[in-house]
C-alpha cells in the first residue's frame, strides 16, 4: 500500500511538472505573440508617418511648377509655405524646400540669380569637394530653423546624392540612408532627407534616361528621427524600440533606440521585422523587458507548480484512505465468499471438478448448453457424457496441467450435447483452491460459441465470395466494395482490420473502434497491428513460428506468415486497448489475393472473449468453493 501511495505521489508530481512545463511554454508563446503584434503595430505606425510626408512634397512640387521652373522666387516659395500649417499637417518635418540641379559650368550664373532673389549672401557649400553637377538647396521654409541648409550641395555627400539620383531616375519618392543634418549636428546619423523629383512640363517621363534629361530638381524635406516619431507612442512600459537601416545587410546602421538601461533592465525577448521605406529597408525591432511581460497577466508556472504539489499531496492522502477502505472491504468479501452462491442466471456453463475429473458443481448455464441436469453429472466424469472420444485427450491434458500447477490456455473445441449433437464451445480452465490455498480441483467456464463460429464462417464465406466475384465480374467491383464496407461497419461487435502487404492498416471498422478505443482516423494509413498487441506475445509467437518453419519470422510476418501459406489462421491473442487495458480475443487472419492469386493484403477478424472468460472463472471458482464448503 505504501508503494502505491508513493507511486501516486510521484505520478502526480510528474503530471505537475509536465503541466508546469506546458504553462511555461504557453507563456513564452503568448509573450512572443504579444511582442510580434506590438512590433507590427510599431512598424506600421512608423511607415505611415514617413509616407505622410509625400503629400507635403507634392504640394511643394506643385508650387514650383505653378510658378515656372525659372520663375519661382524666394518670396513666392515663402508665400506658398504660409498656406500650409506644417506643424499640424506634417508633424516631425523640419520644413519643405526646393533643390535645384545646377550644372558645374553654370554655377556662377546660378549664384548671381540666387543672390538677386532676396539673399545677397547666398553661397554654395559642399560637404566634400567634387567636380560633378551640383544639387543645391535653393529654398526651404521655415528658413530660420534651417538656415545652415540653404546653399548646401547635397551631391557632395554619397547618401544624399544616391537618394536624389534614385528619385530622379525612378520618378518616385526616395529617402536617404541615415545622415547628420547640417542644421542638427547634435544628432549624428539620426536624420534623413526625403525627396520627390520635379520634371520639365510637370509630367514624369517614361524612361530613366528621359527622366535624367528632364529633371530640374526635387522638392524635399529634412527629417530628424526623434521629431518624426514624437507623439506616436511607439514605446510602452517594458518595451524599447530600435530602428535600423539594413539596406546594406553587411553594414546596418542603428539610427534610433540605442539601449541606455540594458544593465538595470535586461531584455527578456526581442522581435524584429523589416519594412521597405521609399527605396530603403528599415528594421523595426522591439525589446521586451520584465515590465512588458507583467502587463500580460500570465499565469505563473511557479504558482502552477505550488498548486500541483499541494494537489499531489492531497491525492496521495486520498489514495491512502481509499486503499485502506478497499483492504477492509476485501476482508469482508473473503468472509462472505465462503457462503456466496454462483449466479445461476449466467448463460455460461460453470463446472467444478476435482483432480480426478469428477463433477463437483454444475450450473444452469451448463444445463442449457449440454442438456444434462446437475443430478445427472455431479459425481461423474464427463468422458462418457459431454466429451467426444476423439477429444478425450483435451480433458486429460487439462487435469494433468492443473495437477502440476501449470497454466491451461483457453481453447475452442467441440462438445457433445445430451441429444448427441456437437456444439462449438470456448473453454477456460483455472485451478480451484480451498481457504488455505491448497489445490483441490479445477473450474471450467464453458461458453457456447456456435453463433460466433457461424458468424466467422459467414464472414469467411463472404470474403471468399467477394474474391470469386472480383475475379469473375470486375464490372461489379464498386457495388461489391459498397457491400463489403457496409458489412464491415455493421459488424459493431466484431473487430475487422485489413492491412496492406507492409502491415499498414487500410480498413478499421466500427467493431474495431468499439473494441480497441481507437478512431479509424488514428489508425488508417499510419499504424500497424503491432500497436494493439503485447510485444511479449508477438515475440513468443515469433519464436514458435521461426522454429516451426526453420527461418526467422519477425515483426508483422508473425501475424500473417501462416495464413499466407495455409489460407487462414485462427488463434487467441491479447489485444491492448488505447487506454492500456488488455482483452482476450479470437483472431482469424486470412490472406487476401487478387485474380491472379497474388497476395494483396491481409484481413484480421477478432471476437472479444476477455469479459466472458473472466466472469466464467470467477463464477466457477466461487461456486466450487461454496460446494466444497457445503460438503
Question: What characteristics describe this protein?
Answer:
23% strand; 631 residues; alpha+beta; elongated; 5-stranded antiparallel beta sheet; 19 helices; 21 strands
Quick structural summary:
By secondary structure, this protein is α+β, with helices and mostly antiparallel strands. Helices cover 43% and strands 23% of the residues.
What does this structure look like?
This protein is α+β, with helices and mostly antiparallel strands. About 45% of the residues lie in helices and about 25% in strands. The strands form five sheets. It has a five-stranded antiparallel beta sheet with strand order 3-1-7-6-5, with helices on both faces. β20 and β21 form a beta hairpin. α1 packs antiparallel against α9 and α5 crosses α6. The longest helix is centred in the N-terminal third of the chain and has 66 residues. It is elongated.
Map the helices and strands.
Blueprint lengths: L1 H66 L6 H9 L3 H4 L6 E7 L4 H10 L8 E2 L7 E8 L10 E2 L4 H13 L3 E2 L15 E9 L8 H7 E10 H4 L10 E7 L7 E4 L12 E9 L2 E9 L1 H6 L5 H37 L11 E6 L4 E4 L1 H7 L3 H4 L14 H12 L7 E6 L5 E12 L5 E10 L1 H23 L4 H14 L4 E5 L5 E4 L1 H7 L3 H4 L11 H15 L7 H10 L1 E9 L5 E12 L5 E10 L1 H21 L1
Parallel strand pairs: 2-4
Antiparallel strand pairs: 1-3, 1-7, 5-6, 6-7, 8-9, 8-11, 10-11, 12-13, 12-16, 14-15, 15-16, 17-18, 17-21, 19-20, 20-21
Number of strands: 21
How many DSSP H or I helices? 19
Helix content: 40-55%
Distance between the termini: 37 Å
Strand arrangement, major sheet: 3-1-7-6-5
Globally, the shape reads elongated
Strand content: 15-25%
Rg over CA atoms: 46 Å
Mean pLDDT: 87
> Which structural category do the helix and sheet elements fall into?
alpha+beta
The low-pLDDT segments are: none
**Main sheet properties:** 5 strands, antiparallel
Amino acid at each position: 500500500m505504501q508503494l502505491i501511495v508513493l507511486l501516486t505521489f510521484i505520478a502526480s508530481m510528474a503530471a505537475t511538472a509536465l503541466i508546469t512545463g506546458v504553462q511555461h511554454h504557453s507563456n513564452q508563446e503568448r509573450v512572443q505573440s504579444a511582442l510580434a503584434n506590438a512590433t507590427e503595430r510599431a512598424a506600421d505606425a512608423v511607415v505611415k508617418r514617413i509616407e505622410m510626408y509625400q503629400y507635403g512634397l507634392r504640394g511643394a512640387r506643385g508650387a514650383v511648377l505653378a510658378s515656372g521652373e525659372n520663375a519661382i522666387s524666394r518670396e513666392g516659395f515663402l508665400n506658398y509655405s504660409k498656406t500650409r500649417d506644417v506643424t499640424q499637417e506634417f508633424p516631425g518635418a523640419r520644413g519643405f524646400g526646393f533643390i535645384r540641379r545646377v550644372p558645374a559650368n553654370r554655377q556662377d550664373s546660378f549664384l548671381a540669380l540666387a543672390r538677386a532673389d532676396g539673399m545677397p549672401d547666398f553661397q554654395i557649400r559642399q560637404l566634400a569637394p567634387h567636380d560633378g553637377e551640383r544639387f543645391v538647396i535653393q529654398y526651404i521654409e521655415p528658413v530660420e530653423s534651417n538656415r545652415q541648409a540653404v546653399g548646401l550641395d547635397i551631391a557632395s555627400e554619397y547618401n544624399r546624392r544616391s537618394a536624389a539620383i534614385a528619385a530622379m531616375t525612378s520618378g518616385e519618392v526616395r529617402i536617404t540612408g541615415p545622415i547628420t543634418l547640417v542644421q542638427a549636428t547634435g544628432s549624428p546619423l539620426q536624420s534623413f532627407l526625403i525627396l520627390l523629383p520635379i520634371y520639365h512640363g510637370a509630367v514624369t517621363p517614361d524612361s530613366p534616361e528621359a527622366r535624367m534629361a528632364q529633371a530640374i530638381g526635387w522638392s524635399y524635406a529634412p527629417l530628424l528621427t526623434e521629431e518624426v516619431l514624437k507623439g506616436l507612442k511607439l514605446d510602452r512600459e517594458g518595451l524599447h524600440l530600435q530602428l535600423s537601416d539594413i539596406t546594406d545587410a553587411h553594414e546596418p546602421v542603428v539610427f534610433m533606440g540605442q539601449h541606455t538601461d540594458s544593465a538595470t533592465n535586461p531584455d527578456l525577448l526581442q522581435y524584429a521585422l523589416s519594412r521597405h521605406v521609399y527605396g530603403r529597408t528599415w528594421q523595426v525591432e522591439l525589446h521586451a523587458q520584465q515590465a512588458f511581460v507583467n502587463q500580460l497577466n500570465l499565469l505563473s508556472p511557479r504558482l502552477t507548480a505550488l498548486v500541483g504539489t499541494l494537489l499531489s499531496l492531497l491525492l496521495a492522502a486520498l489514495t491512502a484512505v481509499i486503499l485502506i477502505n478497499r483492504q477492509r472491504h476485501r476482508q469482508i468479501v473473503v468472509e462472505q465468499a465462503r457462503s456466496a452462491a454462483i449466479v445461476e442466471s449466467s448463460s455460461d456453463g460453470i463446472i467444478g471438478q476435482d483432480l480426478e475429473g469428477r463433477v463437483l458443481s454444475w450450473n444452469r448455464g451448463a444445463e442449457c448448453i449440454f442438456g444434462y441436469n446437475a443430478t445427472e453429472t455431479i459425481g461423474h466424469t464427463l468422458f462418457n457424457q459431454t466429451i467426444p472420444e476423439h477429444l478425450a485427450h483435451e480433458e486429460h491434458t487439462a487435469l494433468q496441467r492443473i495437477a502440476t500447477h501449470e497454466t491451461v490456455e483457453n481453447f475452442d473445441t467441440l462438445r457433445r450435447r445430451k441429444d448427441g449433437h456437437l456444439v462449438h464451445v470456448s473453454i477456460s480452465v483455472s485451478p480451484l483452491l480451498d481457504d488455505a490455498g491448497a489445490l483441490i480441483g479445477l473450474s471450467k467456464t464453458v461458453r457456447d460459441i456456435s453463433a460466433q463460429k457461424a458468424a466467422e464462417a459467414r464472414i469467411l464465406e463472404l470474403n471468399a465470395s467477394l474474391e470469386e466475384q472480383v475475379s469473375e465480374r470486375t464490372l461489379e467491383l464498386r457495388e461489391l466494395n459498397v457491400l463489403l464496407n457496409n458489412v464491415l461497419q455493421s459488424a459493431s461487435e466484431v473487430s475487422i482490420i485489413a492491412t496492406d502487404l507492409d502491415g499498414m492498416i487500410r480498413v478499421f471498422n466500427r467493431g474495431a473502434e468499439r473494441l480497441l478505443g481507437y478512431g479509424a482516423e488514428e489508425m488508417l494509413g499510419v499504424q500497424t497491428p503491432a500497436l494493439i498487441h503485447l510485444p511479449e506475445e508477438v515475440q513468443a509467437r515469433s519464436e514458435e513460428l521461426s522454429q516451426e518453419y526453420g527461418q526467422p519470422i519477425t515483426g508483422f510476418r508473425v501475424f500473417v506468415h501462416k495464413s499466407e501459406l495455409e489460407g487462414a489462421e485462427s488463434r487467441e491473442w491479447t489485444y491492448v486497448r488505447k487506454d492500456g487495458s488488455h482483452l482476450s480475443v479470437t483472431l482469424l487472419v486470412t490472406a487476401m489475393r487478387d485474380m491472379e492469386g497474388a497476395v494483396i493484403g491481409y484481413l484480421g477478424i477478432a471476437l472479444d472473449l476477455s469479459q466472458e472468460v473472466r466472469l466464467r472463472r470467477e463464477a466457477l471458482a466461487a461456486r466450487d468453493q461454496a460446494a466444497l464448503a457445503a460438503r
